[in-house]
Amino acid sequence: MKRTLIAALSTTALLLTGCTAQADAGGRLNVVTTTEILADLVQHVGADRVNASSLVPAGGDPHSYEPRPADAKRVAKADVTFTNHLLLEPQALIKTIDANSDKDAPNVSLAEAAESYGAHVIPLVENIGLDVLWLGLRVRGDGKARGATRTSSIELTATKLEGPGQLVAYLTESLGKPDKYFDSTDGLGQADTTTLPPAAHTHLNWAFTKPGTYRLTLRGSLDGKPLGQGTFTFAVGVEPHTVKPADGGPATVLAEGHTDLTVDLDSGQVYAYSDTKKPGATQTQVAAGRVVIDVPNKALVPVPDDQRFAFLGTPGTQLHQLPQAVLGKHVHGEIDPHLWEDVANAKAYVQLIRDTLTSADPDGKDTYDANTKAYLRELDDLDRYVRTKLTTIPEGRRQLITTHDAFGYLASAYGMTVAGFVVPNPAQEPSVEQVRKLSDTIRNLKVPAVFTEPNLAQRASVLIQVAHDQSVQVCSLYGDTFDEHARSYVAMMRHNADELQRCLGVAR
């Protein structure tokens, strides 16, 4: 599946044209990247022959950055553009690049093309540990036969709801602001549409105002052209095995794990794509008409005392809600896009960057080759440094608890384990149960430290509070941005290795 997904995503990824680019007034290639990390890698390869800059500003979140008109102008003037992609960047930024980059200029998605240079990709593992179903939305298939590209828009529209109460499916953004996707309280219409890029999925809160049986119909479309539709059944506060699914046949009850209501670009169907949590099972497709989604009474929560959530009802009123779990907009694909947390993958990026710059500036080939050889030696030293530091950490203490799923590659490459937990809704105080679960995770794993990212401090308040309550250190790791203390990829990774060793390596 991994190779199929990479191949599908890579169809527009690597455009090495062989045309000589126009240099800037100083004789340098103008290279635009999406992130500071990529710009740093490019600058090391290109040195004085390139001017590399990032669209996402210093300290910015590449997952949620909204492009500005000035960004489109910068892209239009670029001789080369580099994205990471694999849905690291929001689709609006990818669209800005693809729509404005010169058709003769290389436009390279590094994560999607680096596998041929030896990069190792891994699935995005989301270990949240909810005690109710984790329900989201997903797009599957590449849609080539229907003309889909990486900038296509896939719409899921809620067209009909039957049930005793109302349904609001909404996303809570990083600062607590709700964004309604489907809202039946004022009737369903075209406004009840959410848009995803190809091969993506996202997480939502699903709130039901009264117990009973609900049926929700979702319609899919690709760039405005209709696909199929499906009707999903929800058992809200009632025994799910007594509820008939929409087609009246045998039911598949979904009560745990991770499920997405899915539109398939290849088949045109709308169905449930579910992690069954059974031994040896992988994610499986379930016809919409056969699905019964369990929303149990343990999913009861009070409406927040916050005017922003007035659409849910009177503050304190109980409603059934399947939680979003991951804080903020979290649109991503099946492959973890944070490849650079494994230094070996950064080496693959560097070699791909070298070849791309050479295609745009053949006269610089010798310079790019020499710079790359020198930088690869530096990265080999860095890889040894990280590995040596982390091997000193006792195996029982190699647990990572963070606020962002950016460290899967670091864990995989260097013998760490990522532990997951529920991120509470920032618009209300975390429940006693949520705090207890996080406290139990820290206590049971005997972790001496938890880790936050400098640019995501606002996502870490509960983690920090629980860590203090458990007398656990709060330490810092860099995921996908720099700050004033780490202004290069090498500095960032050396900090991560030092911090992990400092915080986990020695019993206190």
How would you sum up this structure, described in words?
InterPro entries: ABC_LPXTG_lipo_actinobac (IPR022434), AdhesinB (IPR006129), Bact_metal-bind_prot9 (IPR050492), Lipoprotein_PsaA-like (IPR006128), Surface-anchored_actinobac (IPR022435), ZnuA-like (IPR006127). Belongs to the bacterial solute-binding protein 9 family. It is found in: Cell envelope. This is Anchored repeat ABC transporter, substrate-binding protein. It holds the Pfam family ZnuA. Helices cover 26% and strands 25% of the residues. The radius of gyration is 24 Å and the shape is globular. It folds into three domains: 148 residues, Rossmann fold (3-Layer(aba) Sandwich); 189 residues, no CATH class; 123 residues, Nitrogenase molybdenum iron protein domain (Rossmann fold), CATH 3.40.50.1980. Strand 7 and strand 8 form a beta hairpin. The protein contains eleven helices and 24 strands. With 508 residues, it is an alpha/beta fold. The N terminus is likely disordered. The protein has a six-stranded mixed sheet, with no helix packed on it. A five-stranded mixed sheet has the order 10-5-15-16-17, with no helix packed on it. Helix 7 runs parallel beside helix 11.
